[in-house]
């Protein structure tokens, strides 16, 4: 789903005013940690403080909201950039600059529980998925049948 610049400004203002923003998940790129419709809470953050494995919300240049896992800092054309990748995506996203960053994931409201990114199992999953990139292919194979569930 694409959003206008005005909508992006509303998101930035909301997170600045309230300290966090809750948004429903859309898509399967962060399966199995985040599933369609689960409510994700993001707090404002400084991109230079992101650590490998953190999940952050940013907007792409075409106005799409994306919540993916942070992998590394890069410098491109003398500008600091952030590189993200969805857990079920094979390759990384286009590099992101600080101005595109909206917030860092702090919790997920699942059907019957709230999962914090500081929980042991979430931290373990983060370490596993960033350490073994081939798991993305296996996850993709798990997601494809779920999309066509009748």
Automatic annotation (TrEMBL):
One of its GO terms (biological process) is signal peptide processing. InterPro entries: Peptidase_S26B. GO terms for molecular function: serine-type endopeptidase activity; signal peptidase activity. Its EC number is 3.4.21.89. It is an enzyme of class 3 (hydrolase). It comes from the Bacteria. NCBIfam families: sigpep_I_arch (TIGR02228). This is Signal peptidase I. It comes from Paenibacillus rigui.
